[in-house]
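Worked problem 6 (solution included).
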Amino acid sequence: MIAPAAQLSLDGADRLVARLADRRAPLGMAEAASSLFALRGAPPSALVHQLVDEVVRSDRRLVWRSPTEVALAEWEEVATLYDLPLEQAPFVVFDLETTGTRPGVSRIVEIGAVRLQGFEQVGEFERLVDPGVPVPSTITRITGIQTRDLRGAPRITRALPPFLEFAEGAVLVAHNARFDVGFVDAELSRLEGRRLAAPVIDTVALARRLLEGRLPRMNLGTLAERFDTTVRPCHRALADAQATAEVLVHLLGMAQEHGVRTVAEAVAFAAPQRRRVRLRRELARDVPAGPGVYLFHDAHDRVLYVGKATDLRARVRSYFGGSGQRRAVEHALEATARIETRPLGSELEASLLELELILRLRPDANRRSVNPERSCYLTLTTDERVPRVSVTSEPRPGAISAGPLRSRGEAQAAAAAIRSSFRLRSCRPARPEDDGSCLAGLLGRCAAPCRGGAAVGEYARSVAAAAGWLRGDDGDTAVSGLRMRMAALGADQRFEEAAQLRDQLEALERVRTALGRLRAAAARTGVLLAADMDDRFVQAFACAGGRVVARRRLPRAGDAALECAPLIAPLRAALAARPAPLRPDQADVAHLISAAFARPGRSVVAVPLGAEALASAATHIAGRRGRVPLRR
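Solution. The predicted structure is:
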């Protein structure tokens, strides 16, 4: 006699096999689970992979086509490849450049692929594709491909068949395969009413399985650097495919050390692993819905992790289902004994409280804002007789400080670039003296004010220019000067010096962008209105200089003039005060405030207020209260 659970599994497997045979195309995880368990809607995400995986592994008719798709083992495209040893299997590693991120809506603009046999490249494929629509400027900035470059290129109807012929009979490989395979499937479905059925290996999933915790990210650039590939990714299809192919060979070699021998074993090895924390879902049973903050406590009531959510119940439960989290978060989940929740009126309020709690509690599993002391500032010591640029841990009184910056190494490179561009001194004495041995002065890399005379005035002008750059007044002078010098060094074949200037230039550009974002965030002034836990009120946050300078509850009814007064007075004082650099913890708040003003969404109402509008600010604030939605 067959047990009921086993019979249910057999019936479900029969349904899944029949559906795959009828469709003649692989099924995604949700569709497979719906067939297995006769669900009308999408199944819950928490146990989907575990349940489907148990059936697939126990039924020889079924195989994993990729980490997230199920196929029939009898399909010729699958059966002839799955049992092949890795060193005998043909692989086609491909990459696409597209007009956007949505398969079926966005279009392919470039296909690049390489074919491997015995882990050696035996062919390559490259084709530009006319998408029939203009290439968005964001894609041009990333790839360099412009609309005019695609004029005369074949449409996808002519470009796809040669690629499919090139890839015939091979295991498909891509970095983030769901994206690339999704685009090919979408076009193939539109043109021929079918999808790819070949086995798929995703190098992201494979790298995550093999290198989790050893690399900060699993993007292609990081992996290419990790394995020192001869071809570096550059957001062009063929180059990225070649880099991915090199990464694949390294990853498969590592997988073989774990006992992976065949294509089928490689696909299964890259599939999401079962998580022990699934069994602890009961901890999230009583979590309420709505926005708020959650804290994971261990058995000693120590806070391990802090987060915020638009919907506490859905967010907290998601930790115990689906794919794994970062290693630190996964360890925190395994050690969690109690989940504390703090329901709040809005996600804005939750985000502000999250930052405050992370800074105060320093949870081990959080990586955002937990080490503000590592931040630094670019400081121009205008209070010294001979000013200089240096990197300091804190803003220096009487000097011009710009920041905070998260990377001290990048700040040091930017400081070197500023000194080089504006010919500022790099020596340390507070009062340098000219003894004729200063190499920077002799080579003209420093204006050498220690010589006196005209050099003093020239140095003063250099200091003023550097101060303007740090304040954001001088946009491209420093950058253009370095570019010209780098080009000159390259022309003279002084490549090492040119490379050093290139690194400084890149750091300078990144620092300039970061400082520009900080200045823009600090310039936001006004009041943010959000829902309150009590529907009779709204929460009002007065913001200036990147900080929340006052906070009040405003009644939804009445003129609220009395309640608005404590918001307007701190705003007036903050606008009148001299701007000061933000502390590291304040920088995160500033970015949060800036985003809320720029894109308030449906849950926040932004009331921008400049100094000239403060006289009538109460009227503006009161008039916008009715637009704040009630707490969800």
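Discussion: Residues 1-8 have pLDDT under 50 and may be disordered.
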